[in-house]
Amino acid sequence: MSKEKLIIFDTTLRDGEQSPGASMTKDEKLRIAKALEKMQVDVIEAGFPVASKGDFEAVNVIAKTIKESTICGLARAIDRDIDGAGEALAPAASARIHTFIATSPIHMQHKLRMQPDAVVEQAVKAVKRARRYTDNVEFSPEDAGRSELDFLCRVIERVIDAGATTINIPDTVGYNVPHQFGQLIHNLMERIPNADKAIFSVHCHNDLGLAVANSLSAVLHGARQVECTINGLGERAGNAALEEVVMAVQTRQDLFSCNTTLDATQIVPCSRLVSNITGFPVQPNKAIVGANAFAHESGIHQDGILKSRETYEIMRAQDVGWSNNRIVLGKHSGRNAFRTRLEELDIVFDSEEELNSAFARFKDLADKKHEIYDDDLQALVTDANLVAENETVQLISVKACSETGEIPTASITLLIEGEERSASATGGGPVDAAFKAIESIVNSGTELTLYSVNNVTSGTDSQGEVTTRLTHEGRVINGQGADTDIVVASVKAYVNALNKLDQGSDKGHPQLGEV
């Protein structure tokens, strides 16, 4: 007997981006969308087209590029939102419009200031308008987890009649617990007369740490789409983590009467990509994608693993993209070996010029590190992708001095629109001094709100990946840099953020709505 399909709806590029500080550029969104497509994600919610010009352009370019996944755009139950989504999604091989309106008493009274009857009519009108653009329309009653059951049944029955093909039940504020949320899905599917004409979906937030548990409970009670994000990224405490939902269903096929069609071996690479782009590191003990997820230190555990892997591992590390293999490349390795290994890692360059630039960076790294691992190559390529085509600020040199009993100093030389400019400064440490020296040159008027350092591999010669977050007049700008010298990596990250600021490539977070 064949299993039913569980549709995976990824909203990393929409709800995930609403995490404070996780704003992504159009190019970064496209890179993640390509990784999601490679993972065979069914539906990619590419953004909220009406939120900004940048969001519209990102959804549009993803719709033009991605062919194997359905591309979705979010829209409030407002004409201009729906029309904007329809226009942005027009080039998609497969498009979906996801429209929503709040249905809980607290939202209707305090946020919408609308009577229930008016909410129902607005929802029906929105679905009918969305159907002008596509037959694939999803409707969400926002804050369904705190809505009255009778009213939910009423509005859902009406929107299905209006043409909604997917009904998404959001636990918008993460209020529900698993047995309660699963029962809600069961009750809706039992009580709504035309429930069989739509796929029921869930979108759970993690405010109480129950997003994955609530999602799985809903699946056990009949939901056949789960909305989730890579690494659990999302508003406040985040969303249900895609990797946890997918692997729970796949691992416990004795319980679930459905399964996904995802290529789970792409989970770890996609997790790393999202982490690198957003600057949100994955905690070591994070399920599935954390560095310690398949690590064993206890002697009892090690003994068991050596005798039989299944004693302490319920899934294979290789099945989600981890590997014990490593590539040993060094300064004597040639361009072909470099290209071949990157292709094996699913990294392909658009031009020989990009390959040559990455190879030059590889040679520089090989002079600093004895062994270069796959993680190093991933970081190297990510660092190369951070170089903007029209950089107005380029790093020429860094000199930092830190000595016991002396005040740390740093000297920086930058190339700004073709003119070399230098400055020196002191600080609490060499990184602080370097940032102050940069600011004395550029005077950006920004505030540094995050400085994060993560090692790429183990060992004292590991590359350090640095994320900086600058804020300026309400905008949030993330910068990244990698180098074996942590001061250089830090300066690269700061300069990368300054270039994004100058180009206006990042945006703030206009919170137009949430499901």
Question: How does this model look, in words?
Answer:
The chain is of the alpha/beta class. It has 2 domains: 4-278, Aldolase class I (TIM Barrel, Alpha-Beta Barrel), CATH 3.20.20; 393-503, 2-Layer Sandwich (Double Stranded RNA Binding Domain), CATH 3.30.160. The chain is built from 16 helices and 16 strands. The protein has helices spanning 26-38, 53-65, 79-89, 105-112, 116-130, 149-162, 178-191, 211-220, 242-251, 267-278, 299-307, 335-344, 352-366, 374-385, 430-442, 486-503, and strands spanning 4-5, 7-10, 43-47, 70-76, 95-102, 137-142, 166-171, 199-204, 225-228, 258-259, 393-401, 409-416, 419-426, 447-455, 464-472, 475-483. Strands 2-3-4-5-6-7-8-9 form an 8-stranded parallel β-barrel, surrounded by 9 helices. The protein has a 3-stranded antiparallel beta sheet with strand order 11-12-13. Residues 505-511 have low confidence and may be disordered.
CATH class annotation of the largest domain: Alpha Beta
Largest beta sheet, briefly?
Answer: 8 strands, parallel, barrel
User: What general form does the structure show?
Assistant: globular
Number of strands: 16
Question: How much helicity do the residues have?
Answer: 25-40%
Low-confidence parts lasting 5 or more residues at pLDDT below 50? 505-511
Q: How many domain units? A: 2
Helix count equals: 16
